[in-house]
Amino acid sequence: MELKFILEKAANEGLALTFDDVRLQTGYSKVMPDDVNVESRFSRNVKLKIPIVSAAMDTVSESKLAIELAKLGGIGVIHRSLSIKDQVFHVKRVKHHLNGLVEKPICVYEDENISSIITKREEKGYAFNSFPVLNREEKLVGIISSNDFEFCGDSSLTAKDIMSTELLTAQEGLSLDNAYHLMQKEKKKVLPLVNQNMEIKGMYVFSDVKRIKTRSAENYNVDNKGQLRVAAAVGTGDEAIERADALCDANVDVIVIDTAHGDSESVLQTLKEIKEKHEVDVVVGNVSIGESARRLAEAGADGIKIGQGPGSICTTRIIAGIGRPQLSAIYDCAKAVEKFDIPICADGGLRVSGDIPIAIAAGADCVMMGSMLAGTEESPGNIIFSQGRQWKGYRGMGSLGAMEKNKSSRERYLQKDEEKNKLIPEGVEGLVPYKGKLKDVVFQYVGGLRRGMGYVGAASIKELKEKGQFDRITSAGFSESHPHDIEVTIDSPNYSFKK
Ligand code: XMP
User: What is the predicted pLDDT for the residue at 441?
Assistant: First the structure.
């Protein structure tokens, strides 16, 4: 990583800077914003098509948002203020949303009744409606699809009563290309693959195969089986190990050890235990000092999350008096772990799209967002109408409400066993404006990043990290940066300025 003059100079003077203290300098450019490559990594082995990660918070990241974000090329981190069962449910929902070849299709037996199949589907969080039907000799005898469920007026009937027996099957080993042509020709939505004994060996689903064939899924962030990628948060200690076991069984792509103070013995011990038991990437945080980041890297972390107190809902810096302005924290940590070749995730404090290229130029590989993704259609919670506007709830995981509700939130702030009236919150709870669909919001964020890269002359995230240089700005420069001497009357999709 090139030395960043202003950040290095500030560090030498014991001065820590953040986003609004700097702006990126422009440089000679041969690249057009539309042509830049914004691919990056969240962890050692897990790539991103766009460098955006959603925060592990109960008002941000559950399966609905994680599915949409992975389809846009990023990754969601399912929060841990959920029972292990519920967190696994959300992970499975993401993993089962899309498939190239479904290697182990979920089947039902012909004598199972419809109400128990519907209950199972809801309990397990299956987001699909087509189930191959087997007899008790494990042979494929039919298929139930969404139509069969929809037109079934009596849920005491069995699978055999409503299934379709006009089956299109193919021998195991059929390629995706051939499956696509066959299903298109025969107008079938699912294609079970069988062996000579009619035992099921896989299944293609037309909508997924079509997406892959027509490249409409080119930007999706998928694993090597064609399933959407998802991460999930754990804490520390025995409960974290139990959680990680269940999440790995559900094929989670990344485990995130999600704590307020990542440079601690319990975090290092948990990291060691998870790495010993599972072949999964583990991202660890949060830290803000280079030495802490190096300790985590040496202990085997596959990615490091930076941020102590920059978040929009954080009060840690005020309540505990600790933390470091985010840009200096990113720079120090990225520099400290350079030789380990693991990505850095800049977590929290971003307010506008222009903060993304700034975080990356300081050394981050990707950014984690809470408030910038909260308030979207896909974030958990309902729209609230107040003062003639639409809002959604957003709260810190260390806010009183979150800590009172869930032990995991208390644990994040080392108050697991505290009585409710003895809690010391490190976050606040409130409302953010309703922002509409995630895809429109993320489009603007990535658009801002692309434009920043164009101005710097950086064709890739790596080049932005190398070439990006900063000017330190004053409060006069800051107010000059925003619109001034005008009463803004028309909302912009990517800008609103609140003093
Ligand atoms: P933004 O700025 O994106 O920040 O809304 C999201 C990040 O803030 C962290 N977080 C907290 N930090 N008290 C804190 O000090 C809290 O209650 C709290 N809740 C979340 C977390 O790292 C998240 O990704």
Answer: 97
Does residue 317 have a pLDDT over 70? yes
Catalytic residue selected from 314, 333, 345, 366:
314
Q: Say if residue 388's pLDDT is above 80.
A: yes
Ligand 1: residue whose CA is nearest its atom 15: 314
Encoded tokens for 46: 């897990």
Distance CA 267, CA 258 (A): 9
Q: How many helices (H) and strands (E) does the chain have?
A: 19, 22
Query: If you measure from the C-alpha of residue 70 to the centroid of ligand 1, how many angstroms do you get, rounded to a whole number?
Result: 21
Q: Which residues contact 352 (CB under 8 A, 6 or more apart)?
A: 448, 494, 495
Q: Given the residues 211, 295, 412, 450, select the one marked as catalytic.
A: 412
Residue 396 CB–ligand 1 contact under 6 Å: yes
Report which listed range, 152-166, 367-381, 418-432, is most confident.
367-381
Of 187 and 421, more confident: 187
Told to judge if 229 belongs to the known catalytic residues of this protein, a careful annotator would answer: no
pLDDT bucket at 79, cuts 50 / 70 / 90: very high
- What distance in Å separates the CA atoms of residue 361 and residue 461, rounded to the nearest whole number? 8
Peptide bond into 99 cis (omega under 30): no
Tell me the pLDDT of the chain averaged across its residues.
92
Task: Say whether pLDDT at 1 is over 70.
Answer: no
Spatial CA neighbour of 74 closest among 285, 304, 216, 229: 229
Q: Does the annotation mark 412 as catalytic? A: yes
Q: Which of 213, 212, 207, 257 is nearest to 236 (CA)?
A: 257
Counting Cβ atoms within 10 Å, is residue 444 exposed (0-12), middle (13-18) or buried (19+)?
middle
Better pLDDT: 335 or 166: 335
pTM equals 0.88
Tokens 């240089």, residue located: 469
Establish whether residue 314 lines the binding site of ligand 1, counting it when its CB lies within 6 angstroms of any ligand atom.
yes
Q: How far is the CA of 420 from the centre of ligand 1 (A)?
A: 21
With left for phi above 0 and alpha for psi between -120 and 50, is residue 333 left, alpha or beta?
alpha
φ, ψ at 452 (rounded to 5°) = -60, -45
Residue 333 pLDDT more than 80? yes
> What is 437-489 written as a DSSP string?
-HHHHHHHHHHHHHHHHHHHT-SBHHHHHHH--EEE--HHHHHHHS--SS---
* 301 has a pLDDT exceeding 60: yes
| C-alpha pair distances (Å), 385 with each of 17, 84, 145, 431 | 37, 33, 39, 11
DSSP state for residue 43 in the 8-state scheme: S
